[in-house]
Specification:
The strands form three sheets. The chain has a four-stranded mixed beta sheet. Strands 1-5-4 form a three-stranded antiparallel beta sheet. A two-stranded antiparallel sheet has the order 2-3. It folds into three domains: about 110 residues, no CATH class; about 80 residues, no CATH class; about 100 residues, Lipoprotein like domain (Double Stranded RNA Binding Domain). About 20% of the residues are buried. About 45% of the residues lie in helices and about 25% in strands. α4 packs antiparallel against α5 and α7 packs parallel to α8. The chain contains nine helices and nine strands.
Length: about 350
């Protein structure tokens, strides 16, 4: 009898253990799921994860504003991208100086946002800031790489037109100097005026085209600027500027050539002279270049009409590298519009 109860007790214990096993397994499985849930990253958002307004066509919104959606890792970055895209809408048809890259790439149902962009629009080139910016919508989505923000911005067209017109008004007051073209002084003054305002007139016409595209064109201003442009073109065809410089300065002559009229009748000379200084500092070679630029009459007494002094400093691991760095810096200065450094 005693043996029977011993066997019976062992069987009961074994049965109890067997009955307890599923509960332990379930606890272990639950713990594993909890661990996986804690470490799992949210999936990359697809187009369906974004609100409808993110990819809604611009035609869905009132025509009184310009709209753009910007993306970024923060709201500030997203707003920057949206403003850049609005700037492009203004300047895309009026000679954007450097095209922006702001791509929304869709593939396999996912939306990849490329937020690396570099651009210099007409608005930025003329120092115009977008004002009265309205934030219409914003949203935040989490993904495996962090978070992405989308922002919908709007800018009233009337505000943009007003800003453009403020820039245009000084150009409306320009008048071509109709002087005695037979005299040396008269021709020199016409050429000087054309050199100073040629780029500004072109920019003014771009401004007016942008205003017209936004419904705020200024036809009288456009006709006035077009007439000035024709006068400048005639000067460009008939009067030239000769660059006078020694052989060592020929690389600088090339940087200037695209901004000067090439007519054979040299009404003005652009004289270049240079001084250089070389040295070393903290193991690096340094070179300083000082270039004197003078616009003068082509004959004695060589009347100076305009002059400026430009400086550049280059450094490098060798004297040659420093020399090249200083040269590149000087070339970049001379490649800027004449109004930016010669007619100050």
């Amino acid at each position: 009898m005693h043996t029977f109860w011993m066997h019976t007790g062992k069987m009961a214990m074994l049965l109890g253990l067997l009955l307890a096993l599923p509960s332990a397994a379930a606890q272990q499985s639950a713990a594993q799921l909890a661990t996986q849930s804690a470490t799992q990253q949210p999936p990359t958002p697809t187009e369906a994860d974004w609100p409808d307004w993110v990819f809604a066509p611009v035609s869905d919104y009132p025509t009184t504003h310009l709209y753009a959606v910007g993306f970024g890792v923060s709201k500030a970055t997203a707003r920057q991208h949206a403003l850049a895209e609005i700037s492009l809408q203004v300047s895309a048809d009026v000679n954007t100086l450097q095209r922006s890259v702001l791509a929304r790439k869709r593939s396999a149902g996912a939306t990849e946002i490329q937020d690396d962009f570099s651009q210099v629009t007409l608005l930025e080139a003329l120092g115009l800031q977008l004002e009265q910016v309205e934030e219409q919508q914003s949203t935040l989505l989490e993904n495996a790489d962090g978070s992405q923000v989308a922002v919908l911005l709007a800018v009233p067209k009337a505000a943009i037109v007003a800003g453009l017109h403020d820039r245009l008004r000084p150009l409306e007051a320009l008048n071509f100097p109709f002087m005695d073209e037979a005299s040396e002084q008269g021709r020199a003054q016409q050429l000087l005026w054309s050199l100073q305002y040629r780029q500004s007139i072109d920019d003014g016409l771009r401004l007016e085209r942008a205003m017209a595209a936004l419904g705020g064109g200024q036809p009288m201003a456009r006709m006035h600027l077009e007439q000035l442009q024709r006068e400048v073109q005639q000067v460009w065809q008939n009067m030239g500027v000769r660059v006078v410089a020694n052989y060592e300065l020929q690389p600088l002559v090339g940087a200037l050539s695209t901004q000067l009229p090439a007519a054979t009748d040299s009404v003005l000379w652009l004289r270049l002279t240079e001084q250089r200084k070389r040295g070393q500092k903290q193991g690096k070679f340094l070179e300083q270049r000082v270039v004197q630029v003078q616009l003068t009459s082509p004959t004695a007494p060589f009347t100076v009409y305009q002059q400026q002094q430009l400086r550049s400093i280059g450094e490098g691991a060798s004297a040659s590298a420093a020399e090249q760095a200083a040269l590149r810096s000087m070339q970049q200065q001379l490649e800027q519009p004449l109004r930016a450094w010669l007619f100050l």
